[in-house]
Amino acid sequence: MSYRDIVPDLLAGSGHICGRRPTSEEMKDAEYGFSICKTLVPLSFGQTVVVNKRSVVAVEAMEGTDATLLRAGSLCLGGTVVKMMRLDQDERYDIPTVGPNTLRNMAQAKLTCLALHSGWTLIMDPEEFRSVAEKEKITVMGIEQCRSS
Question: Minimal CA–CA distance to 89: which of 22, 7, 4?
């Protein structure tokens, strides 16, 4: 039994989830970010990369997502955050998770788009999450991907 069985309503869906609609540049960065994640996550890095204009700005390691976002914000203005589930993660307890504070940290770092692994990323406190996305003008989308090995 996993989170997917217990709280399926908290899993990111596919397509536009909340906030403003993504720009074509953000869509390209999200696709590029997922291709980078597929390459990196089997190496047991974190679950997150930040991309700006098809350049990798930050890769999550032991510092965690929030510190990765703030580091990315210190390096560039704007960017797309991509969060992906790895094949070697135990879905019973180790699943990518985002929440309102993720979006607040993105806003502080001036990051504009959050692309989530559809069906594999938990969105905590979804009502507040949507409210923060709208307030901060951050687009949130789910993208279907095979789990990375």
Answer: 4
Is the pTM higher than 0.90? The answer reads yes
Enter the tokens of residue 130: 């949507």
pLDDT tens for 82-97 read 999 877 776 777 789 9
46: CATH: 3.40.140.80
| Per-residue 3-state assignment (H helix, E strand, C coil) for 13-80 | CCEEEECCCCCHHHHHHHHHHHHHHHHHHHHCCCCEEEEECCEEEEECCCCCHHHHHHHHHHHCCCCE
Range(s) of the domain holding residue 68: 3-143
